[in-house]
Every structure is written in C-alpha cells, then in structure tokens.
Amino acid sequence: xxxxxxxxxxxxxxxxxxxxxxxxxxxxxxxxxxxxxxxxxxxxxxxxxxxxxxxxxxxxxxxxxxxxxxxxxxxxxxxxxxxxxxxxxxxxxxxxxxxxxxxxxxxxxxxxxxxxxxxxxxxxxxxxxxxxxxxxxxxxxxxxxxxxxxxxxxxxxxxxxxxxxxxxxxxxxxxxxxxxxxxxxxxxxxxxxxxxxxxxxxxxxxxxxxxxxxxxxxxxxxxxxxxxxxxxxxxxxxxxxxxxxxxxxxxxxxxxxxxxxxxxxxxxxxxxxxxxxxxxxxxxxxxxxxxxxxxxxxxxxxxxxxxxxxxxxxxxxxxxxxxxxxxxxxxxxxxxxxxxxxxxxxxxxxxxxxxxxxxxxxxxxxxxxxxxxxxxxxxxxxxxxxxxxxxxxxxxxxxxxxxxxxxxxxxxxxxxxxxxxxxxxxxxxxxxxxxxxxxxxxxxxxxxxxxxxxxxxxxxxxxxxxxxxxxxxxxxxxxxxxxxxxxxxxxxxxxxxxxxxxxxxxxxxxxxxxxxxxxxxxxxxxxxxxxxxxxxxxxxxxxxxxxxxxxxxxxxxxxxxxxxxxxxxxxxxxxxxxxxxxxxxxxxxxxxxxxxxxxxxxxxxxxxxxxxxxxxxxxxxxxxxxxxxxxxxxxxxxxxxxxxxxxxxxxxxxxxxxxxxxxxxxxxxxxxxxxxxxxxxxxxxxxxxxxxxxxxxxxxxxxxxxxxxxxxxxxxxxxxxxxxxxxxxxxxxxxxxxxxxxxxxxxxxxxxxxxxxxxxxxxxxxxxxxxxxxxxxxxxxxxxxxxxxxxxxxxxxxxxxxxxxxxxxxxxxxxxxxxxxxxxxxxxxxxxxxxxxxxxxxxxxxxxxxxxxxxxxxxxxxxxxxxxxxxxxxxxxxxxxxxxxxxxxxxxxxxxxxxxxxxxxxxxxxxxxxxxxxxxxxxxxxxxxxxxxxxx
Length: 936
Fold this sequence. Notes:
Low-confidence stretches: 1-23, 747-752
Helix content: 10-25%
Keywords: Carbohydrate metabolism, Cell wall biogenesis/degradation, Glycosidase, Hydrolase, Polysaccharide degradation, Signal
Distance between the termini: 25 Å
Protein name: glucan endo-1,3-beta-D-glucosidase
Enzyme class: hydrolase
GO molecular function: carbohydrate binding; endo-1,3(4)-beta-glucanase activity; glucan endo-1,3-beta-D-glucosidase activity
Structural class: alpha+beta
Family: Belongs to the glycosyl hydrolase 81 family.
Oligomer: single chain
CATH architecture of the largest domain: Alpha/alpha barrel
Mean pLDDT: 93
C-alpha cells in the first residue's frame, strides 16, 4: 500500500512539474515554458485564405502597409504613395496627383482620388485584366502585375517617389485621360512628353525610339515601348522636365531601411537606400520626395522642388540614399518617487486597485489594457512600500501571460480561449479571443500585443528567471509586430511600422478609399516602449535598439502629423488642434472609430499614460492649445469621459489646475479602463514637482529622462543591471546609479551641480516579528545634506525613508532576509551600500491569513503536517509547492474537501524546516501566494 502511494505521488509530481510536451496536441509548438498553436482554435474565425500574389512572392506576407490592399483584393482600392495617389483597376493603373486639389475644412485635410482623376495607364492589347497581384515588394515600394495570357503589365511604385515604372509584354502603354491633356513639350515623334492635366504636370517617358499617337485626344499611346515611366512634376518648365528625364530610365528595383542607435549620443540614424536598374543609359539613383519628419531631420542636399501632400510639404532630393538623425529622449520603466503627493492618499489608491477583481472582456485588446494597468501599478506600490500589493499586481500579470502563453490546457488539448495561433499562410500570430478585426483583418496587432510586451517587461525588471522561462513567447509577439530580422521565415519585416511614412498603420487590409489609417498613435508608442524595456531587462540589445528606432521615429511623426506642434503642415482652414486619425489620403480631427465625443477624440492619442508617455510633455505650449481646444469643443470642463486622462494631460501645461481638478473630482471619478487613480495621481504630482521632460538633454543610457521646472533640472535614470553604472548627460551632469534602481540628480540647469555622495550608512540593526523586520541605522553625513535613504532587500529596492528607520512588512515567517541601505542627497547622489544585515523572521504560528485565503499547518502525528488552504473565493484548483530542508521541490494538486483544500506531508522529523507556497485559481486567473516557512 505504501509503495502504491509513493508511486501515485511520483506520478502526480511528474505531471505537475513537466510542461505539456510538443505532442500534447497535433500542432502545439513549445517555446520556453509556453507554446503556440498552428491549428486554429475551436470556434475561432481565421483571416481570408486568398492572397493575390504571383509565384515571385513567397514567405510571410506583409500586411498593415500603405499598399496592403493589393494583396487582399482582386485589384485595389486607392493607395497613397505620396506625393501621388494611385489605384489598381481592371483597365490598368490609375494615377492622380492631389497637389493643388487638396481641400481642407475645419476638421479634414482631404486629398483622395475623386471622379476627375488624371489618367489610367493600360495595355494596348488588353481592355480588362482579371486581377492585379503583388509581384514583389521592398521596404517602401511594391510591384503590381497585370496578366492576361502572354500579355502583361508590371508596375512599380512607392512612398515618396514621383515616378511610376512600367514594363510591358505583348503590347504598349495606353494612357486614358478624363479630358484631353495639354502637351507642352515633345511631339508624336519624340519618346518624352511634358503634359498638364487638370492643373497637374507630368513627364511621360517612353523608350528610345518610341513614338506617340493620339496627341490632342483623351487617349495617348506610346508605340514601341517595352518599358515606360511617369513622373509627376513640380512645375511645367522644360528645365524641370529635363531634370526628371535624367532619372526616368533608372527604374527603382528595391528599397531598404536600416537603423543605427548611437547609445553614447542617444541618437537614431536611419538610412534609406535605393537600388536602381538603368533601362537605357547608365544613370543610377533616382529623385525622391521627403516627408516633413524626414527633411527636418536630414542634412541631405535638397533640390529646388516641392510637392503638396496631406502630410504637408514634401521636398525633393536625388541620389541612391539619404539619412535622418533623431534624438532618442529616453524611456523609463516608471516615474520616480519625486511627486508632491500625499503618500497616504497614494496608498489608498493602491489599496483600491488591489481590491479590484477584473471582470472585463477577455479578448487581446481589453486583457492587454488590464495588463497595462497592472504594469503601472506595481512600481507605484513598490514606492509606497506596499510589497504585498506590488507582488499581487505582478503575480496577476504573470498569471494572465502564462495562461495566454500556453496553447494547451491541463489535459493537453488545444484551448479555445486565451491562446495564440500562428497562421503560416500570411505569416502572423493571432490571439483568441480576437477583437476589432485582429483575426479576420489582421488589424491592430501592435496596439494589442504592445500591452502584453510592456507588462512582461515590468515583470522582467524584477524577475529575470520568469523572463527567461516565458520570454520566447514575448519575443514571438515582438516578431509579429516589429520583426527586424529579414531572414525570419515566419514573419515579414516590420509588419505594423511604415519606415518611410515614419509611423505605424492599424488596418491589416487597408480596404478603404482613403487608404490605410492609424488612430491611437500613443498605443503604437506603448508597443515600441515595451520593446525598449523588454530588451533592456533581458539583455537583448537588438530588440531594445529596434524599439528605440521605432519609438523615436514615430514620436517625430506624431509631432508632425497628429499634433503638428510647429503648426507648419496643415492648411489654415483646418482648425482642429489635433488629428484624431491619420489616413493615407486625409487627416481628420473630429472623430474616432466609435465616437465623436471630444474627450475621446483628443484622448485616444494620449492613452495609455505611462512613464513612456513623457514625449507628450516636450511641447507644453502645444498641449495648452490642445487642452483649451478640448474645453471649447466640450463646452466647458464638465467632462463625461476619461476625466483622469484629461487631468493628466492638463498637468503638462498647468499642474496647479490639474491638481485642483483632482482634488475636486478625484474621489468620485472612475478611471479609464487601462488606467488607475494611483497612476493618475502619481503622474500629476510628479509633473507638479519636477516639471516636464526636457528633450534638449540626452543621456548615454536608454532608461532616462531630464525634467525641467522653471530652469531647475531633475536628472532621472534607471539601472536594470545587477551592478552600479555611471550615466553621463549631454550637459555634463554625471550620476551614479545603484543596481536595479533609480538615481535622481538636480544639476540646476547648468550641468554638474552637487556631485558628492553622502557617507555610507553604518550599524544596521533590527527587531522582528514573524511577518516584519524593522531596521535602524546610524545617520549619514553629506556636504549639503542627506535627503533620505533607500532600503534594499536581496539587492532589490523595496522602499525609502526620510529617517534612520524602516519597517518591511508582509514577510514570510521563519525566513532569512538580507538588507542594505544607501543614503541620498537632494541632488540625487547616492552613497555606496551599507554592510549587509541578515535577519530571520520569527517562526510562524502555523496560520497564514490574507484577504484571499487562510492557510493552516497542523501536526496530526509526530512525523506529519497537514496543510489546509481555504480560499475566500471558491477555486477550481489549488496546488501546493514545498521543500523540506531545502531538498527537491514537491508540487502536488491539493484535495478539495467541501471548499477547503488539503494535503498531508509525511515522513518528517522534528526540527525540519518546511518552505511552502500555493498556486490557486481565482475567477479565471491563477495566483501565487507568498512563501511561508514552518518548523516541524
């Protein structure tokens, strides 16, 4: 009987310890401790199976691009490779230059194709093609192939290119116009024509020896050309036509972007390279038009040509490449504990969040927002010294992520919920339940998965072993939205980010007459910030630097196209202070996908507010303008949605008013779903104390910010490594940062400042209970004055004290802990660590009580202990994990006895130490209890 019991125990132990194997169900692919499925989950809706592509295109298919509709539909809707607008049609390739035809009103800058288009390039031998397919693509160019038997027309076009390139088989170019164009250069016998159509000027470039027929009519045919190109011209002069003719036969065959992050200068350099093929002659390179976010950040010599676009003025240059250089202004894992807030009030807000139980929607977006909320709450709980709440927040993150990161259930079957599925046809990962078209249309992956990545980064900041186990699944999501490995056979390059436009796109299929769109630019930034923090926490410099490049580039694009902070890119008749949505063919400022409510129209490009949102503070004059516009559109400050976000935004331009709003309304308002009162209060009062982020000062570490309040600067940096580092700011300020913690400095605006650290705290001593340790130490000295002390447990910062004592609560009974203390001054200089002080809490009583459960240990015999676990909320399962005298960890599913879960440990000897903890289900999520130590 005893042998059978041991056998059953071993079977249970093995089942508990071992992860589900790759063969648990056909199609499960293990990654670290997690897995994904290559089989569609039961009841799930997949994306369409048809991809309109030729045999020249293989591997994962790009989606969420400006040209994506070409791959999704028989032809395409309108596409906007500015300065041109184009459309793939059954009769050929339609071309339009919005230019002077762009219109604007109070809430729209509109430049879409209308019925009076310029012309369509077709094929002399084919009236109607059966379809247009993707025949190739590069980073911002695409090729469309029209095929009817042996007759073919291949078209190459791209962002920023005034040219469109054609290759013909079985016929010649035939151009059909709405009205007969004016020919102002060339003749029937010359291969090149300069024409004007409805006020737009073009160069038409046939092959050497080709001729034209139909001049003076609505149809022009270029006879004798197997290759052909069109260029939209800035004017109708012969000199300009000659200049564009220089590159007209140098067809662009490839485009490639590369990013380089200079950590010492905190600078992102982006290189855009063109590959060309001379169809006649030997010319290389091309003429290209740069967007405002590019030419404002480039030293490239410019040509005297400009184009009007819905993004503002585009400026032309020539050659085979150009570069942009932009400052990376830093990302922090959380704001520091520098606020003017009341710590008791902040603790109350943490308590409110701790008492919440998530009952919201279970899809990737809304679960993501829950993860985002928890990720901001955990470090705030750390700062108020509430380790129990901080642990609970992080444990919920772990539980949610581990549930989603495992494709099989406990029985080894494919789950139908909380699962990621890989679609090999398109090369994408889809999370189920999906939402907002993230499965059928492949929409919004960067919005949804960005929350997952950023929450995982918060856990990785304090738990490297968890990151190592579950990190491969996090990296899978990163590869889906922002893969930078061109050799990756599973995912396309930069799915959600458009390297030439400088920002992300939301729609997977771009099946709109206005082109693709992106609404919540701030949620894109949240994704890239998550990559920065995840890469830094896990030591993956490639992921970190990719995140830095995307974050920096999109920040510049947001300031140009969503906010237009310099007021240089939009017509005066567009009177909105912000763009709520940016489309390929227009910019709108009066609505979102679901509402025209002013609070949400403005706030959709702010949320989620996190420490990575400091880019919003770089232009306080603009934020004041934007806030005042919101008040005007709303008819006053009686806000009926997203009050917390509005007050956080107001803190950028008027923190006093934001505090007044909060004091009047904070107790009554309900926080936006992805936010919390604790985070709002923490943000408002940190900005009140430190001012806004100053983008003119950089640092040689990626996790930094410099705040400026009336000329007084506060230097913030965070060290995610296990060793101290020294950070140098670009104004000369130098700060030393302890391992796994913040350091703050105040250089007074001129660099340098007080750089002398306090003396090391000495003579650590302690008193203890079974659940707490109270530390005391001798005061340090400083040349200016000691501002306080930081307390570390096991090398991790757990709290701060303004006095020479600190109490660490919520500890496990009978457990050894090691503490050190560092002194800090007002300038942010931090002393070296004190000598370590070790202390073991008193043995527990055998009963462990929390708000979520009561656990007891009783001794039924001299050689056994009975453990019971009574959850406050009924649990579907409870597992006990324990070690005896530090031996091999045991993991056993407890037995449910009318709601009280039980397990007996036998074979014990007097004096043996049992360390135990529990994993339990609570309304779906899984939680881990604290560790407890008991002496038998």
